[in-house]
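User: Show me sequence and structure for the first protein, then do the same for the second.

Assistant: Starting with the first protein.
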Amino acid sequence: MNDETVILSASDVSLGYGRRSVLRGVNFQVRRGQRWFIVGPNGQGKTTLLHGILGLIPVTAGTMRRDPQRLGPRRIGFVPQRCDLNATLPTTVSEFVGLGLVGQRVGRTEHRQRLVEALACVGMSNLIDADYWSLSGGQRQRALLARAMVRRPEVLVLDEPASGLDLTSEDALMHALSELNHRVGLTMLFVTHNVELAARYATHIALVHAGGVIAGQTGEVLRSDLLEHAYGVAITVTQEAKGVVAAHVGRREQALETDR
């Protein structure tokens, strides 16, 4: 689900820290309901681009425009790679998910309603009163997603959400995200080095490499020549019938069914 509402646009943007420029000449538009994957090798500027999008670092040149109704601090949900909660602290799933409401003024009734709603979104309604530490790795990652969804965000930002998950848990998490995207038009920004994951789920790609960003629809950016130049290894990407993408990285080849 998407529409033509532009919620973010970058025009010839440069980003960096102090006098050190990291990215230059960045151009793209994000529309409501799109799934953007920010990909590229480690250390090339993926986090810098994300920080610029979120307004955490200033634009040093060019123009970055954000829709304040959809990219304001209260309208963004964030899903980190992992949770650094103290393992000695007894915590229920409802208490953990409720941490997403810290700083927001909601009454007790609405607080409970949001918890129920967020856990239903990720298929964990039956675990609302469970011990957080009894959850599997995949369930904890979905609990992190629920913690972001409890804010009722317009935009969901995810930093390597499938990192460390087995294939079954990864599939369950990404299916939940795809359902949210299709059902409520939630805009998503993923940061990942996983090209195969991007091939499977992205509608749009921002490839960060060598101080620049190549951005556009997945089929335009996810090309063998561009990826090989960025990653320095042989990568073959083919788009086949019925939306199947075959990714060949080095000696590994995997057919991935797109979820667009």
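Switching to the second protein now.
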Amino acid sequence: MWGENYMKLRDDLQYLAPYTAGKKAPGALKLSSNENPLGPSPLAMESIKSSVGEIHIYPEGTSAQLREALAARDGLDPSQYLVGNGSDEVLTMIAGAFINPGDRGLTAVHTFSEYNFAVRLFGGKMDFFDLNQGALDLKSAQKCLTSRHRMVFLCNPNNPTGGYFNHESLEEFLAGVPSDLLVVVDEAYREYSTAGDFPRTLELLKTYPNLLITRTFSKIYGLAALRVGYAVGAPGLIRDISVVKQPFNVGTLNQGAALAALGDESFLHESLEINAQGKKFWYKSCEDLGLVYYPTQANFLAIKVPKPAKEIFTRMIELGVAIRPLDSFGLPGWIRITIGSPEQNQKCLAAFKISLND
């Protein structure tokens, strides 16, 4: 019989909470995880079908073709890219490469929890700075920095609020922090942004070698189940992070689907159009209902609700729609709704109105 003393979890992990995912209920419309309502890129699906016969062979370990395609698109070199099993793995690799026990990271108080997870997984500690109207306040971030901070994580647009900081703010921040501080800008939703002053992060790489950008194929490209994310940075930085990369971390089908999706301009355009229409729909709906919301640069909307968010969530699940209460983000009076297709938005709004009035 197993005893109680054969193994003990590390003391510093005792209170590390597991990730809270968007809920999925049988038969319910899922608008809780910011997935593309159009589904996956059709070209990506064709790529998967054509590659199924190769699944007995190990994948190419460096995702070379995908890195070359990304570099060609961005006007950079393939050595500046690292591909991972979703952005989550990329974030973990970053912390694994640079965080020593006792080191400190910095991120926003209401943002994606995986930054905190990655730093604490390797014995680090996380500190937090404030938001300003749903966007990361980089002036607040700079004031919080100390000599003990090894890296800062900036989600832009921010999940779960959808706010963003602009190019000028980021450049000013980079110019004002130590050159040995790693600045990780997570741009999981950047393809959805329509702001003219959204940061041109790739341009900033030339001046700031301590800048690292993370992006994903999970959102606008519709490949969330395939887990393909990547980092872009200085070749030396990418080389150092690659030391902790598993040898075959991204499968052949995944690499091929991402490569195909990258070239599916028609799908990308349609995804942007449906999101733009959905934003207008939800803005007007919230205004008609007298509800406060954060204008978004992403494919979701954070809305302040007049009753506990978990009550709204529970009632909407009963009505066949899954949304995200933001309690796990430290925002108990808010919910997050993924922007869907016109039909999905209408169904969600009907359930939302009932949940507000019950």
